[in-house]
Amino acid sequence: MPAQQQLLQILERKIQQDQLILPTLPDVALTVRRRANEPNVSLQEMADVIAQDPALAARMIKVANSAFMGRSIKVSTLNQAVTRIGLSQIRNIAIAMALEQVFVSKHKQVQQQLDALWQSSVQVASIAVACLSYYNSREARTGLNKDVLTLMALVHNIGALPIVAEAERQEALLGDPRFLLHLATSLSTEVSLRIMYAWAFAEPFQQVASSWQKLQPDKPGPGYTDFIRLAVIARDGYADKELQQRLLRYYMTMQMVPQQDFMQHPDIQAVYQDVRAVFS
């Protein structure tokens, strides 16, 4: 039996038997979420929590100073950064910034695949937020928030992570890295949902994970998943090119994007670069 088929069978069996080792959120992300849910938590207390992780604290200052927050005056301290970001956004942004810590492996080849998965998620998030920014600038009161979408996009394919990590334990079957990434994504939906449940993510996150691979729009919409689909379309990520093109035309009629090559639009490209810079 070819190695690729063996690996597929092993992964399918482990998924069906719920034997994959699921990733856990970094401790600081769990603490941020718990404290953010407390009704009387203060900005100072949130800053104290984030300060426990120097790398996360540095990233939060970077976010506060970025075009993502739409401010030109720079801040230099974590307290200033948390104040600028605000309690309503701090939870999603802090978790998003901490997520990269999950994409780690001691196996060099597997780490390369996890790096590729992370960069793919960052690109999807950047494109999706750029398209949402364009849409929000033209449609009042959409109710869709860029910090929520950022986190959703970063975890939309999170189920691929333990699938790739499982391949570390099947080293003789690793084979073509491109096949491994394709296989991980094709099998990821059920695993993503298990991770969302384990991480206690809300139902909208689970909805994104279960439906982003489906080439049909949210109705009524547009919804968060639609902007993630737009990002996948921008990366030419769907196998059915005819349906992909049809969905893009529908999103254009919904005025979510202005043109077929929407990543060339200056407003969308500018926000895309801004979001990418936050994760660089």
From TrEMBL:
<protein>
    <submittedName>
        <fullName>HD-like signal output (HDOD) domain, no enzymatic activity</fullName>
    </submittedName>
</protein>
<feature type="domain" description="HDOD">
    <location>
        <begin position="22"/>
        <end position="215"/>
    </location>
</feature>
<dbReference type="Pfam" id="PF08668">
    <property type="entry name" value="HDOD"/>
</dbReference>
<dbReference type="InterPro" id="IPR013976">
    <property type="entry name" value="HDOD"/>
</dbReference>
<dbReference type="InterPro" id="IPR052340">
    <property type="entry name" value="RNase_Y/CdgJ"/>
</dbReference>
